[in-house]
Amino acid sequence: MTSVHGAGQGPVRWGMLTVISLGIIALTLNWFDVAAAFPLIGAEFKVGLGPLSYLISLYIVGYGLSHIPGGMLATAIGMKKTLVLGLLVQGLAGIMSGLSYSYAELAFFRVVSGIGGSVFIAVGTAAVVVWFRDKDVTLALGITGGAVFSAPWFAGQVKHGQIHRFKGRAR
User: Fold this and answer.
1) Alpha-carbon gap, residue 52 to 11, rounded angstroms
2) Which class for 97: exposed (0-12), middle (13-18), buried (19 or more C-beta within 10 A)?
3) CA-based angle 86:8:12, to the nearest 5?
4) Residue 60 contacts by C-beta under 8 Å, 6 or more apart in sequence?
5) How many helices (H) does the chain have, and how many strands (E)?
6) Do residues 114 and 62 make contact, with C-beta atoms less than 8 angstroms apart?
7) Which CATH superfamily, name and number, covers 10-166?
8) HSE (side-chain half, CA atoms, 13 Å) at 28
9) Is 21 exposed, middle or buried (0-12, 13-18, 19+ CB in 10 A)?
10) Alpha-carbon gap, residue 93 to 103, rounded angstroms
């Protein structure tokens, strides 16, 4: 198994868990964030709901095609480098998606972003299992799993003002 020097000991592994969890949050939000911009994207590129929906599917295509190559890459260059590469590709492709000047360009960057997310996630769970042992591994996996599902819920609550109402401040 590939390991990262020092990552299985002390606070370094918890720092890496934080990076992985934040990366998973970014992946989850990047997967679906485009839907909120459908009206703007549709107007900008003069496309309807069908092509707009493909933007989510295209992310999934890139994501689905790259799990095995992501694992192979980790075997070749190591977990840490693969994690960083996946995060960089996903992040830069996400930025380029927002700067796209055409639907085709946006679609291309959605696929590339999915590839980066897949390369990252292909190694993220394995890294957690390698870096954590015994009862700590279940806590660490619970944290990363919680990151996947909690972030979109929280973002939706903020968007719809639920957090403000919860705090007693009506909008």
Assistant:
1) 43
2) buried
3) 70
4) 31, 114
5) 8, 0
6) yes
7) MFS general substrate transporter like domains (1.20.1250.20)
8) 19
9) buried
10) 14
Which pTM value belongs to this model? 0.77
Which residue has 């496309």 as its token pair? 47
Locus of tokens 């973002």: 155
Per-residue pLDDT of the chain (171 residues; tens, 9 = 90+): 444 444 556 778 888 888 888 888 888 888 877 888 888 999 999 999 999 999 999 999 999 999 899 989 999 999 889 999 999 999 999 999 989 999 999 999 999 999 999 999 888 888 888 888 777 888 888 888 777 777 666 666 665 554 445 445 444
